[in-house]
Task: structure prediction
Amino acid sequence: MNAELNDTLAVARVLKPYSFSLPFWDATREKKLLIQYCRASGRYQHPVRPTSIYTGRRSDLEWREVSGRGTLYSWTIADRGPPAFRGHEPYAVASVMLEEGALFIANLVHCSRDALLEGMKLVPSWHPLGDGRHLPMFQPA
Amino acid sequence: MSLKDTAIIAHAELKVMERSDRDVWQLGAEVLEQLLDRSGLEKREIDGLAMATSSTGAGNMFWPQATADMLGLELDYCDEVMMGGCSPVACVARAAAAINAGLCTTVLILYADTGVAEPNAHDRSYRREWTEPYGLMGPPGGFGLLTRSYEQRYGLDYALLGKLAVTQRNHALLNDMACEKLRKPITVADYLGSRMIAEPIRLLDCVMRADGAAGLILTSRKRAKEKGIARYVVPTGYAERVNYRAGEAFADPLESGHVVAGPRALKQAGIAIGDIASFHPYDDFLIAMVLQMEALGFCRPGEGMAYVRDTNFAYDGDLPLNTGGGQISAGQAACSSENLVEAVEQLMGEAGARQVRDTRNALVTGIGWINYGRNWGASAALVLEPGA
Result:
């Protein structure tokens, strides 16, 4: 198997955010990672939802900027991606456990296949989308 | 009136096709005719229709009633159950509830889909925003992540997953209704050598989508007896759990709602997991069956590999498993109802060359959808027993 993984940086990404996640994407212009925080329960949640998954009350939610530091929870290597990713395989999609306790799924870049290790420390890697926004990815710390 | 007061009095299925050469409603009509022949009912005696999620029907807000119109059915109950792979068993539970609530007396449960020939479904979920931009491929991607988690935590012997693949393939060889393309023998080496899709998911871990149709007739036991129907199958326990741990930031991807739905269904049926005579789990990926064995209590979490190693899952073995080939070796068709219809056929004693010896009961499960970084979103379990 190929030890080198494609960072897929040449793949054109199409973002189709829902209205309630626009603040997340706006913050990526400044390479800030915002995660939803429920004031009532004192817990974070991701992916972005229209309400608190803890209390069911939208009014309990606020956005908090987090460091983006986390650890590798799990990963899969795509050997045949969807059409936009065709020809860019193999590439890694990882689930990352953020320090705040929420799981974030993203491409893992600048990492060889042999280096992949559960629990390895990761930091964000911001991929420019061409419109000022960035797609958050992760790379080894 | 309870679930146990209803009876499946007839079942029908069409041969699974790589791509249907007939319209989905023609398939539905073929199933209906088989069901009328086998049950001895007249069409006018059917006063309910329950249909499962279908890719062809998706997007049509009037799918069940448009289908009923095509089939000339005048109904007192008309429903569509949209729970993905849980829909087949969930249809049985809802049809039984409708009968018990007095809405209707006799329900046609129809599983017809031509998702290969005419796919109309589209996803609207977290995926478009949170996984598609990263190229995570739907179900294989999700199962890739959870399979890696299993491997990291417990270790995974891929040859034992291969054993499950071979067992089911052997069953498909004995099932004339299985998709012909898949009715070729395979070995563990074939499984291990099949190409990677979403590592560690291989091609032979996955279902192949196919076209087909199947159906059941559910009525009250009282009515079944009045009609003089000698052989039928009774749903004796059912439970479902949707979005297990939905209100928590993190859920173990190796844990599903089957830890809740399984015990509830068994309790309602009044039996223990060790009493299960044949097991017909939803199989979109081989690992899903191992996780269900653990969640339902055939073995403890993390002991699935040892359990698979020590158990003969052949139709004439210790715990017959998906004796029609499962979806993985029969083709994922007919709204994923094949394992359910196979279980009914086994309990009716009509499974021919692959007939199981012990027909005291059968456990059928469903899986629907995959949550973000978690396990599957819907888990269902249905216990069936032969009636008398």
Notes: The longest strand of chain A covers residues 70-78.
